[in-house]
Design a protein that fits this description.
Blueprint (H helix, E strand, L loop, with lengths): L5 H9 L11 H11 L3 E7 L7 E8 L5 E7 L20 E2 L2 E3 L7 H17 L6 E7 L10 H10 L6 E4 L11 E3 L1 E2 L1 E10 L3 E2 L10 H12 L14 E8 L7 E2 L2 E10 L5 H16 L5 E5 L7 E2 L4 H14 L4 E3 L7 H4 L5 E3 L13 E3 H20 L2 H5 L1
Parallel strand pairs: 3-6, 3-7, 7-18, 8-17
Antiparallel strand pairs: 1-2, 2-6, 4-5, 5-19, 9-16, 10-14, 10-15, 11-13, 12-14
Helix pairs in contact: 1-3, 3-9, 5-6, 7-9
């Protein structure tokens, strides 16, 4: 039997070139390790028109409740120019006290720690009551269409019911133990087109410049804050990301102006209520003079919150016991697959330090792999020792 400590597992995973949507051998490796430990493992490929086929993995040990699910992704972003890396991005080299490679922190290192903790727990606590599972996708860094969403639908259709989930995204900004994610903001993108009439700048009466109208609309969107935030969320934030008229000439009034904006919103809003507010602000700003069109992109990124409870407390206590730091409970950052999982069970995100994710020379401290594995093990100990009533609190 191969070594199943977090470092060895992480090295094996990094050496699999699983750039989205390629499986690269990563799920095959995980399948082999978990099967040998007694997990029931399923490999599933999901498809959709216009998107790449994606391989996924679901594994379960045990048949009863409570059921604690570990979730994550083995796909990674491209390494870019490999010659700029200190070591080959898929070599899994240990340099000094750090493990190097694409996915070291986002998030093959986290998956390795989950696996090491679960395998050790099962080996030493074979008579525990409940189930431990893994839900691993290869589509988190891609379109997120043929991954976690469909994997959850498949599991639900076959009667799988999860009580709680830990997602191993790299949540810590500086040191292991800094931060737990108990929610995420939603994301909504809108696109505005202001219609005008092209013409010569020397004859403005023969044209209709759309730029002043766009300025009015953008000002109307930004003039007032969307909200003041909540106990667990910062204020929702609207950012204009581009304004463009596609006009290379300095003596031509453009025919139209386009703008794109993105809103990261808290749980005071739904995509529908936010779209209604955007439309209201634009109508007021436009009055009867600005002709415009608004289109909102479809979104599956809805704000969610796992309120601080016993489960969150187990994780915070384990982190503090191992690192000496009480983690901040946060909802900051971008989106993650937790937005899909929360529809089935409470989900908390905690993983490695994310300072080098997606960068050249992505790397993780070897000591952090050991610490994170120990934290996950402490959570398992507390979780399966708790009463059913305590887990619901």
């Amino acid at each position: 039997m191969m070594e199943v400590d977090a470092l060895s597992l992480a090295q094996h995973l990094i050496r699999c070139p699983s750039v989205t949507p390629e499986e690269g051998g990563a799920l095959t490796f995980i399948e082999g390790v978990l099967r040998e430990a007694g997990f029931e493992v399923h490999r599933l490929v999901f498809t959709a028109p216009g998107t790449p086929d994606v391989e996924n993995l679901y594994a379960r040990y045990g048949s009863g409740e409570p059921y604690l699910l570990f979730a994550g992704h083995t796909d990674v972003v491209p390494p870019g120019d490999a010659t700029r890396w200190r070591h080959d991005p898929f070599s899994g080299v240990i340099d000094g006290e750090e493990l190097h490679g694409r996915g070291a922190v986002d998030m093959k290192g986290g998956i390795a720690c989950m696996m090491a903790a679960a395998l050790e727990f099962i080996r030493e606590t074979s008579d525990f009551k409940g189930s431990i599972g893994f839900l691993i996708t290869g589509d988190e860094e891609g379109p997120a269409i043929n991954g976690t969403v469909k994997l959850l639908e498949w599991a639900k259709a076959r009667g799988e019911r999860f009580n709680h989930c830990i997602l191993g995204e790299p949540t810590n900004p500086n040191r292991l133990g800094d931060m737990i994610k108990i929610g995420r903001r939603g994301s909504l993108t809108g696109r505005i087109v202001v219609e005008g009439k092209q013409g010569h700048v020397a004859y403005p009466h023969l044209a209709d410049n759309p730029v002043p109208g766009m300025i009015r609309l953008v000002d109307g969107l930004l003039r007032e804050p969307l909200d003041q935030g909540t106990d667990h969320f910062d204020a929702s934030n609207l950012e204009v990301t581009t304004i463009d008229v596609g006009n290379p000439a300095s003596n031509v009034i453009p025919a139209e102006a386009r703008a794109t904006f993105n809103i990261r919103f808290n749980d005071l809003w739904t995509p529908q209520s936010l779209e209604e507010e955007v439309e209201r602000r634009l109508r007021e700003a436009a009055g009867n003079t600005v002709r415009y069109r608004l289109a909102m992109d479809p979104t599956n990124a809805v704000a969610f919150l796992t309120p601080p409870n016993t489960f969150v407390g187990f994780i915070a206590d384990a982190i503090e016991a191992e690192t000496g730091r009480r983690p901040k409970l946060s909802t900051t950052g971008g989106t993650s697959d937790a937005r899909f999982i929360v529809k089935d069970c409470p989900v908390v995100e905690f993983g490695l330090v994310g300072q080098t994710m997606h960068q050249v020379d992505e790397r993780v401290a070897v000591a952090d792999l050991d610490r994170l594995s120990t934290i996950y093990r402490k959570v398992l100990d507390a979780y399966f020792a708790a009463s059913a009533d305590a887990l619901q609190a």
